[in-house]
Amino acid sequence: LSTIYLCSYFAIIGCKQNEDRANHETSLPNYRESLSEAPQIIACDHNLRILLEGDIDQLYASLQSSQEGSWIEQARYIIRRLPDQGETPIPKTKSAFQDERLFSEVKHGTKNYSSVTFFHQKSGLLIHRMLCDHPGSLHTSARDYNASSRSPSLLVVPFESTLDILDNQQMVKGEGECAVVISIEQEIQTHWAKICHLYDPDGGKFPDVIGVIEQLDQEAAASLK
User: Fold this and answer.
1) Is pLDDT above 60 for 57?
2) Does the reported pTM lie above 0.85?
3) How far is Cα of residue 17 from the mean position of the Cα atoms in its chain?
4) Which residues contact 134 (CB under 8 A, 6 or more apart)?
């Protein structure tokens, strides 16, 4: 498939002290018009991997372990971008998988949505970071299909709004940026709290939780160079 280079501009939401953050420019390399049908693979270690299938509008993640020469699914997740009010279906998403990072974007009218999905080796977290250049227009839901059979491993992290939970589905609405974090080995609430305290003395409270996600993103990208 032919590739093109795109630059996406995202307005990062302001902090509680009403300080305006500068527009954040993110370069998304080697975009392709569509993903191949085969899932994208992130290797966690020689016995554990994550399969990604989909894009910013609907992403499936499957955690698999190697057992006697076969890959067995241990957990499955789905992350959806929910349509904003008045949104018309369905523009084509553009996605690329490069250096074990999945980039995806879609444009609805004047609104640009973008995501990057990556594995942060040090923390053992799969992170799905989502942005929109129109604050208040990003709505997200995520579901852990195995939550009832083990400790919860998925958490939607809102930056300004409130997390709503219905059964095992988590939702945030009215954001400009948010993240979904998945712990591959530990209960997510306790593990995420430890990670936040490690990267931010205030424990990842808004607006510093944005900085925590940015640090994890930068570290994961740097480790691949």
Assistant:
1) yes
2) no
3) 26
4) 11, 110, 111, 112, 176
